[in-house]
Amino acid sequence: MENASELVHFPLLINTNYTASTIPWRLPSDDIRIPTPTELSWINLLLNLIPSYKKRAENDTSVPDAANKAESFAQRYGEILENYKKDPSCRGSPPNLILLCQIREQILKEVGFRDIFKSVKDEENAKAISLFENVVRLNDAIKDEGARLENLVRGIFAGNVFDLGSAHLAEVFSKEGISFLSTCQNLVPRPWVIDDLNTFKMKWINKPWKKVIIFVDNSGADIILGILPFARELLRRGSQVVLAANALPSINDITYLELVEVISKLKDEEGRLMGVSTSNLLIASSGNDLPIIDLTRVSQEIANLANDADLVILEGMGRGIETNLNAQFKCDSLKIAMVKHPEVAEFLGSRMYDCVFKYTEA
């Protein structure tokens, strides 16, 4: 990650009571030495993900002695999580999701791994690139603006299924993969658990935004078949679009450098995305290296680019729900994600694989 001195507050964030945590893990009155039911459920969720991380690490051919290093990672991280289950104050103060994700990434780096999901990201990006033209043509064929927007939004939800931070979905991907078009067709029916699409649609049709910042999520179908067709439509409607991607790898989230490469492959010889100019498309590093994001710690680059934005979009469960569902902004904001953890579904009172589309006007 960038040096801590280079990480700054996101300027469009209203800081009053902001915390990068949507689901409270404990109350001030709880004994810090006794885990709460919520803490236990989330620690168990992270414990259940260790086997999929270990498997990816074992298969990382870029790292010598990967199997032993993967075992070391699994043991060290597992021990820390088990200790937190026994005593949440074992390392000072009770944990939160950001801390536990930071510890996981730190241990991976310490034992010698940089990007254990690199091969699967490359594979899924290649598959999605081959489907991009067809997905865009299907969207463009919808003449009604509102209907086309809803189809684009459904594409974002369908793409967001590609999430190896979910133990169940990681298993599904390893066995059979997931079809983007069939996922689009089989989304849970509206109304979704949070469904502000009709309000957003009215603003979309009547008053396009001048500058949109999108904090993006996963590689593969998520970014290429979900976000990029949506961003292309914004460009076609006259908006400037900034895509903010991770500075460093985490799970299958796309990084800034990977996103630059993907878009270069999708552009034609004149620098267009299926006929739409990309002169108003910018790609930036968010400064982040986790699958979730604390908006008090973003890159100076994205902070500078955001100053005149009038719409901020946080996409994906980690950024849009788990850490920033309640974040308030000085401009319009949209949190869009699919519910892929039972703990999140329980908190929202939703179904698994329900959809969150939370639009807030400034």
UniProtKB/TrEMBL annotation:
Keyword rRNA-binding attached: no
GO cellular component: cytosol; nucleus
Keywords: Hydrolase, Manganese, Metal-binding, Nickel
Keyword Hydrolase: yes
Gene Ontology MF, one: hydrolase activity
Cofactor(s) it depends on: Ni(2+); Mn(2+)
Domain named Damage-control phosphatase ARMT1-like metal-binding: residues: 51-356
A GO biological-process term: coenzyme A biosynthetic process
Highest taxon in the source lineage: Eukaryota
Pfam families: ARMT1-like_dom (PF01937)
Protein name per its UniProtKB record: Damage-control phosphatase ARMT1-like metal-binding domain-containing protein
Lineage of producing organism: Eukaryota, Viridiplantae, Streptophyta, Embryophyta, Tracheophyta
